[in-house]
Specification:
The chain has 154 residues and is mainly alpha-helical. It has a single domain, classed as Arp2/3 complex 21 kDa subunit ARPC3, CATH 1.10.1760.20. Helix content is 76%, strand content 0%. It has six helices and no strands. It has helices at residues 2-19, 33-45, 48-64, 70-85, 94-113, 121-153. Helix 1 runs parallel beside helix 3, helix 2 packs antiparallel against helix 3 (48-64) and helix 5 (94-113) packs across helix 6 (121-153). It is globular and about 45 Å long. It starts with a helix and ends with a helix. The model has no long low-confidence stretch (mean pLDDT 86). Pfam families: MreD (PF04093). It comes from candidate division WOR-3 bacterium JGI_Cruoil_03_44_89. It is a multi-pass membrane protein. Its main location: membrane. This is Rod shape-determining protein MreD.
């Protein structure tokens, strides 16, 4: 039942990310709701995160159409990394979870920007850094909500 709820949460995150997120952007900073879900699943449900990454990446690629397969690859890789290292990461404190989410956002954005030749330090400070802080700020309350869902699903 818990897996079904998190699949619905992932679908909802994809829909909101592709339609409504631009309305809550602050300047060029946009939160990545999909990555928040993948990061949570990776930290607390292990290797399932790779499949969540694949599914959400597929959804994003189908919605955006340009560069088909790129989001699948990036989000699957992030999900795999988080799932693979979940047993080795300290994740009991919200500060640790926030740092892991921040690093996941940076890794994802670097994986996207470097091969396209779009990585410059002004890109990092102008878009990646503000978006990562915004993602973490929204991710913290969502992690609390997801933990509550996890506890009720046990």
């Amino acid at each position: 039942m818990r897996d079904f709820i998190f699949i619905l949460i992932a679908i909802f995150a994809c829909i909101v990310q592709s339609t409504l997120v631009q309305f809550i952007s602050i300047g060029r900073a946009v939160p990545d709701l999909i990555l928040i879900v993948i990061c949570y699943v990776g930290l607390f449900h292990g290797k399932k995160a790779m499949w969540y990454g694949f599914g959400t990446g597929l959804f994003v690629d189908l919605y955006t159409i340009r560069g088909f397969g790129y989001n699948i690859l990036v989000k699957t890789a992030i999900g795999w990394l988080l799932g693979y290292f979940s047993n080795y990461l300290y994740k009991k404190k919200i500060l640790a979870q926030s740092i892991i989410l921040l690093l996941a956002v940076w890794i994802q954005d670097l994986i996207i920007a470097i091969p396209k030749g779009q990585f410059y330090f002004r890109t990092f400070y102008g878009r990646i850094f503000p978006s990562s802080i915004y993602t973490v700020a929204i991710g913290i309350p969502l992690f609390f909500l997801f933990r509550r869902i996890d506890r009720e699903g046990e």
